[in-house]
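note to self: dont lose this again. the chain is below, predicted strucutre after it. 110 aa total, dont forget to put it in the shared folder this time
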Amino acid sequence: MPTSAEKELSDRIAREFAAELRQRLGDSVHKIILFGSRARGLFTEGEEFKFVVTVDHKDREIDGQILDFEGEYLDRYDLLFSSQVMTEDIWEIEQRGMWGGAIKMEGIRL
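---
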């Protein structure tokens, strides 16, 4: 279980990631949702940050930009960042299943 200082740092890094990703990709980003153990506040040291990122359209260019961005954060914090990138339409469908439904319930929209 993380300390309150570790939780605060984790929350700050997640908010920073979301803000910088939005700044970089602009209006093409609709939602950024932190999920998993970081969202639940039950992470262990070095555990990755997991996000759902919904976008206008999904293509190799968007995927590449987000992957490069995650690499910058890996270099900056020595932590893994992984994003499940999808359109709003696909996210609507995913929320009906177990994985998306769990994220809908426990995820934190940033």
